[in-house]
From TrEMBL:
RWD domain location: 9-111
CDD domains, alphabetized: RWD-RWDD4 (cd23817)
Region of interest (Disordered), ranges: 135-168
Gene name for this UniProt entry: RWDD4
PANTHER family per UniProt: RWD DOMAIN-CONTAINING PROTEIN 4
Segments of skewed composition (Basic and acidic residues): 156-167
Protein name per UniProt: RWD domain containing 4
Cited InterPro entries: RWD_dom, RWDD4, UBQ-conjugating_enzyme/RWD
Amino acid sequence: MAANEDQEMELEALRSIYEGDDSFKELGPSSFQYRVGDIGDAKAFLIEISWPETYPETAPNISMNAFFNNQISPSVKHSILKKLQEEVEANLGTAMTYTLFEYAKDNKEELMENHQPFNNVISLIGCESTSEATHANLSSKKKEKKEQLTKAQKKKLADKTDHKGELPRGWNWVDVIKQLSKTGSSNDDE
């Protein structure tokens, strides 16, 4: 049971540290993703870490099989995983998910030094005018992805909004009365 307690503590720490960080994603209570680099960055990559039941006494599972990493060659992925595995061995027995994500962030350039961006490969294969046209088409097709909502989330949102789909005035206001009563009661105690 000690491993589960360690996992709970690490889970709380990760949630606290990465709160509001768009690069971090909790896939489940023992599975996490972190995007190293910005979305438009050719050297950005995604690391997925999942904990086995006996983690942190045993190594976490580290994967780079996410679709986001399809532009990265297998040799570069293998190199990144090898370096992360060295970090795992150095930190075995301790909570290391944060350490692994931060190591990847701090060493992004070194980890991706042999990476050839997809557009460079195209210009080597075809003529430059073709690659420029392809690049222009790819960048024009890139649009900001909308967040997908479940039916329940859509229904809940529809219940909160008016006929125009807008939230009512004051939906995010702080309840001043509650705040005043809390501060008033704490002042009375002093």
